[in-house]
Amino acid sequence: MQVKKIIFISFCGLFLSWSAGCGGGLVGDTPAAGRACLWVTRDFGAAEIYNSEVEFAATDSVMTMLQQYLEVETEYGGGFVNAIAGLKSGYTGKVGEDQQMLDWFFYMNGIISGVGALDYAPGDGDVIWWDYHAWGEISFTPAVIGAFPQPFLNGYRGSNPGTLILIGKGCDRHGECLASFLQEQGAELVEIRPYAETLAGRRTRITIVVAPWDQLKESSFWQGIQENRAKTGWFAELTPDAFYPLDMHGIRGEGYSGLAGAVLATGTGMGDPTPLWLITSLNQEGLGEVIDLVVYQPEQLQMMIGALIVGKEVIALPQQR
User: Fold this and answer.
1) Which of 143, 187, 244, 252 reaches 20 to 30 Å from 321, CA-CA?
2) How far is residue 321's CA from residue 313's CA, in Å, rounded to a whole number?
3) What is the pLDDT of residues 16-57, one digit of tens each?
4) What CATH number does the domain containing 221 carry?
């Protein structure tokens, strides 16, 4: 989220280099320092406004990049994005009616930025994602999956602490498959270890937990993540018998059982350099299908906050009404 909203979020107690689908871009006569994916979407990635791989100069910030390729309206001395492509921050509807606050949210490599766009210097291969959506009851999404295989390649603000893959019982092959994929994409310092809750909770690296839900369902740690969705940004309810998609208000839709799986991400706050990912399913067979999709069809996760996987169908979260 942008700097303008930090006070509000503190008050509330809240507040890829996958470039598939990116086109070309130029920075004019300025020598390019690198290339990054620039995405602009609305409604949690449901509608695409801009999607291109663009060049940037060494002196560029995320803000100056954005202004080079799109129509941007700023406030507060040019440090806050108020509108992109004519979509303005503000309330919908008339006073006294059911209003919604719509705003621009800003993710770097799948991590909600803890600094303003003027203060973030892009890196080569970064994924810069602006999404315009309503706050809702689950407004704070500290980490999202839609930039995969970021942040495992570039990390956040040019720093990457490495990746730790924590595997449940019987998940050795899944962990090795995922680690090999990330290394092939350019991720460094990838380690696989048996699942331990302390390592998931007290992270020093970007962490992925790969385990069937029946091995995690009794954990107070994971139940806490589910129950505190306003802070963790999870738009799914995982139960022993079914996985349920949630909409932006936390209202759950039809549940999925059988081989249903999920790919979800969270973090401890804005600019968390060590987000936590969960790749899970209701059973081992379903987990294999989810890993296969993540490794062999990662483009299916692009521009998603989170996802449920049901057979060959990928259900984007939050659920759209």
Assistant:
1) 143
2) 18
3) 233 334 544 444 455 678 999 999 999 999 999 999 999 999
4) 3.30.379
